[in-house]
Design brief:
The chain is of the alpha/beta class. It has 2 domains: 160 residues, Rossmann fold (3-Layer(aba) Sandwich), CATH 3.40.50; 92 residues, ProC C-terminal domain-like (ProC C-terminal domain-like fold), CATH 1.10.3730.10. It has 12 helices and 8 strands. An 8-stranded mixed sheet has the order 3-2-1-4-5-6-7-8, sandwiched between helices. Helix 1 links the parallel strand 1 and strand 2. It is elongated. The model has no long low-confidence stretch (mean pLDDT 92).
């Protein structure tokens, strides 16, 4: 059951992920539109958020920060240094700072803001847009139990949440943050195969999409591991076995593992680790 809380929430950055947060908060009844303000440099984004959700939006960060007691930093990694420089000139004491910017550590934010500022770092993913995301998060040294409760409320509106140690945040970026793209890539391939086998494009995509949805729901509700579920579909000498044989011969599983490790390596490079 949704619970409201009395936080005034300020978003720095009004992109897609900020929009997912806003939609989730309002849809779950955790707060009112009047409790939310957004700052974004793009006039069209501000207008979109105002018109879509009724939140207040401005081109400057200061007003939004000063009127809020929870700040969600939702800017691109390359803009974080400028945002932190500005925040360092504003009063952030007593405010809860949530950052969904990839690559910027909690220590970096704490140092920039000075003082005992509560900082939580979050790695959400795009299915949060429909309330089906998974958000991994790590807490800073000044975070209190009350802060954690508020963050769990917010993230539950976006899907599921898991607390991890901060050293796993780059892995979180690779596995869950980038993860939807891997699924879409596989879905592309399934739909392409369907077309080549004679289905109309719309038919191929619908069949492939529902097959993936059904398989995921079965994996989610079953007590069996994915490997066991796969074996149940794979009869010796059958059609599925012929397909798996090709995937194994071409080392598709290893390629996927290597790809995710490459994403993690890139996340480490971007964060300077």
């Amino acid at each position: 059951m949704a619970r409201a809380f009395d936080k005034k929430i300020g978003f720095i950055g009004g992109g897609n992920m900020a929009e997912a947060f806003i939609h989730g908060l309002l849809n779950a009844g955790l707060c009112l539109a009047s409790d939310i303000c957004v700052s974004d440099l793009k006039k069209e984004r501000r207008a979109h958020l105002r018109n879509s959700f009724g939140v207040s939006a401005a081109g400057e960060n200061a007003g939004c920060v000063n009127s809020s007691n929870m700040i969600i930093i939702a800017v691109k990694p390359q803009n974080m240094s400028d945002v932190l420089a500005e925040l360092s000139t504003l009063e952030t004491g007593g405010k809860l700072i949530l950052s969904i910017a990839a690559g910027t550590t909690i220590a970096t934010i704490e140092t920039a803001l000075r003082g005992e500022v509560a900082v939580i770092r979050i790695m959400p993913n795009t299915p949060a847009l429909i309330g089906e995301g998974i958000s991994l998060w790590a807490r800073g040294r000044y975070v209190k139990d009350e802060d954690v409760e508020h963050v769990k409320f917010i993230l539950s509106a976006l899907g599921k949440e898991i607390e991890v140690k901060e050293e796993l945040m780059n892995a979180a970026t690779a596995l869950s943050g980038s993860g939807p793209a891997y699924v879409f890539y596989f879905l592309e391939a399934m739909a392409m195969a369907g077309e080549q086998l004679g289905f109309l494009p719309a038919q191929a995509l619908a069949i492939a999409t529902q097959t993936v949805i059904g398989a995921i729901k079965l994996a989610e509700t079953s007590r069996q591991a994915p490997e066991e579920l796969r074996k149940r579909v794979t009869s010796p000498g059958g059609t599925t076995a012929a397909a798996i044989k090709v995937l194994e011969e071409r080392k598709v599983k290893k390629a996927i593992v290597d790809a995710i490790k490459a994403a993690c390596g890139r996340a480490e490079e971007l964060s300077g680790e």
